Amino acid sequence: MKSRRRVSLLQSLSKWDCSDLKEFTVVSKSPENTLKLGINIGSVSKPGDVICLEGKLGTGKTVFVNGIARGLGFNGPVRSPTFIIINLIPEIRLCHVDAYRLDDSEALISLGIEEFLDGDWICVVEWAEKVSEALPEERLWVRIGFTEVDSQRKIAFFPSELWLERIEKIRKQVGNEY
Length: 178
Ligand SMILES: Nc1ncnc2c1ncn2[C@@H]1O[C@H](COP(=O)(O)OP(=O)(O)O)[C@@H](O)[C@H]1O
Ligand SMILES: [Mg+2]
Description:
The structure is a single chain. The chain has one domain (about 1-15, about 20-175): Rossmann fold. Helices cover about 30% and strands about 20% of the residues. The chain has helices at about 1-15, 30-40, 60-70, 105-110, 165-175, and strands spanning about 25-30, 50-55, 85-90, 95-100, 120-125, 140-145, 155-160. Strands 1-7-6-2-5-4-3 form a seven-stranded mixed β-sheet. Helix 2 (about 30-40) crosses helix 3. It is globular and about 40 Å long.
C-alpha cells in the first residue's frame, strides 16, 4: 500500500503537465442546466471511473452529482456526505465522497478510499482539490466556479486520456445548448 501511495503521489506531481488534454468549458444558466450536464456525464460513466469535482461551497457540485446518479439510472435524491465523507449507492455502484472536512489525501486513504478505486465503483469526489493525491491520474476533472450572475456557473471539464472521446461527444451534443 505504501508503494502504491508513492506512485500516486508521483503521478499527481505530473498531472498538470497535461497540456495536450482538451479543456471544455460551458456556462450553466441554472441548477437544471448543471443537473443535465451531470446526467450527460453519468450516462457515459462506468465502473472504474473517477470524477473529481473542484469548486467552492455552493457552486453546484452536489447538484452535478445528482445528475450523474440520474444518468446512471438512480432517481432518488443524493446529498453531500459532509459528515460521513463516503456515501455508497450500491444500486448504481456509485461511491460519492465529500472531502470538505478532510485535511489532506492521507485522511481519505485512511478512510479506505482505495477499496473503491479498484475498478468496481464509479467514484465522484466533491472537494477533490483537497485530496487529489489520493486519486488516480486517469480521471475526469470538473471545475465549477461562480460567475457574476447568481444563477450561472462556469463549468470546465479536463478529461484525461480515457475521457477524451466521451467528453468530445458531450461537447458536440451540448455545444449549442449553453
Ligand atoms: N447554475 C447553477 N448550477 C448549480 N447550482 C446552482 C446554479 N444556480 C444556482 N444554483 C444553486 O446553488 C446551490 C448549489 O448547491 P450545492 O450543489 O449543494 O453546492 P456544493 O455541493 O458545490 O456546495 C443550490 O442551491 C443551487 O440551487
Ligand atoms: Mg456538496
